[in-house]
Amino acid sequence: MGFIQKDALRTTILSFFGLLLGYVNKGVLFIYILKTEEIGLINLILSVGILFGQLSNLGSINSISKFLPFFLESDKQKRSFLRVNLIFVSIGVLIFSSIAFLLHDNIVHFYDEKSSLFVDYYYWIVPIGIANVFFYVFETYLRSMHKNLLSVFMYDFVLRLFTTVLLFLLIFKIIYFPLFFILICLSYFIPSLVLFIYLIKIDEIRFQKEPFKISKKFKKIIFSYSLYSYSNSIAALSVMTMDSLMIAYYIGLKETGVYTTIIFLISALQVPYKSLTRVSNPLIPIYWKEKNMAKMSLLYKKISSISLIISLYMFLVIWVNRDNLFTFLPSEYLAGIWVFFFLMIGRINDMYFGLNTTILITSKKYKYDIIFTFSLLLIVFILNYWLIPIYGIIGAAISTSFAIIVNNIGRLLVVLKWFKIHPFEIYQLYVFVLFFSILFLSQFLNILHLNKYVQISINLFLITSIYFGVILKFKWNLDLNIYLSNIYIKLFNKKKEDNLLDV
Fold first, then answer.
1. Does residue 470 fall inside a structural domain?
2. DSSP letter string over 136-200?
3. Contact indicator for 302, 501 with CB cutoff of 8 Å
4. pLDDT for 72-121, tens place per residue?
5. Is residue 208 included in any domain, yes or no?
6. How far apart are CA 140 and CA 158, in angstroms?
7. The domain containing residue 91 runs over which residues?
8. Do residues 149 and 11 lie in contact, with contact meaning Cβ atoms separated by under 8 Å?
9. Residue 248: inside a domain, yes or no?
């Protein structure tokens, strides 16, 4: 089995179990235990806390991802590079912690009327941000060395398991919401501390100072890249946080709870894609270093093709069963059906063109990506300002998806123009035809008015059988055929075939 497949399979399995826990937590227990306003509060605080973490990293995360491959041959240089970035992160934490405290009165002014609960718990964005920024640094460092499992295990599984335990303590009234909220926030330190201890154990962090010797020219390159990528990542994450903040301001925490719950459910559908990019993204800086455009083009097409197949399938499964699935949720979540529709269109586009951002920001043309990111931020803000007061959370979903699609098309065109690579394969057109055919025919599946459990099971079986049956039968994606064949071979101890998926 190819390198990407092996690691992606392991991380996908871990993420899958984390996904199940996450679904039990946010898709079931949160909805039936917490008030919608409390759900909105937790998700909003976590979103702003993550933004705080990105602000505090001062470009270190992208710097590690881009430049660590240049130091892998020297343990001392590698450790020193990490140490320098940790110093910058610590400075960033001090700066933005101070700013967060100074902004408190402004936050009260904006949110006290419709989202007063957010004001009461506002300061918790700081510990969440600190925990997240150090996790991101450690996780990016390990990922650049192709060590993904521990990070995935801690963040996707252990963190969610801890949340499950807290929810059951809440159910049995051993704790109450204020303490539950505090423990949720503090739990984000668990993955960070575990990765920190692991890095010490494998001798990647030493407490004695080691010299970091690089040329002035290289320092200038690193600083310039960090500055631009930092601005870029802030704008990109601001887009993700802006929806929740503007919904909380214009409408309230109750609608924020509905919107962020749908975002979580969509994020859960992206687990296979995230597992693929977690493994594939670190390869792109290496290909740039080697000037190997053939491998980069091949990786671009492979990841985009399999992501398209997976994302269209996920959309079919949810959308065909939407009426039955949303009956499991309280009635206030019915507006989430169209939120899912519009957001998922944007996410399908994002997964299909996903690597174009990484290719651009790790290239010598990285400075130009900031134009796209700030354009994205501006479009989302303007459309949210216009559409949220009119259409509520559906307006926010339309704004975000429209901006994502426009932005991705722009990046796609410049990557094609400058680097002469693209994600397109002819069979992808066939996949789209198959998708729309199943989507049309599926409208006749629900006319039987069967029990919803039976109907969901029948729909799932038919969609899966037809969709993957046709793709595998006509071998539209040889990688998928070989991938599934290798799983079969591994399970039944057959002779292993040559793998075409090594990149």
1. no
2. HHHHHHHHHTT--HHHHIIIIIIHHHHHHHHHHHHHTTSS-HHHHHHHHHHHTHHHHHHHHHHHH
3. yes
4. 777 788 888 899 899 999 999 999 999 999 988 888 888 888 888 888 99
5. yes
6. 19
7. 3-424
8. yes
9. yes
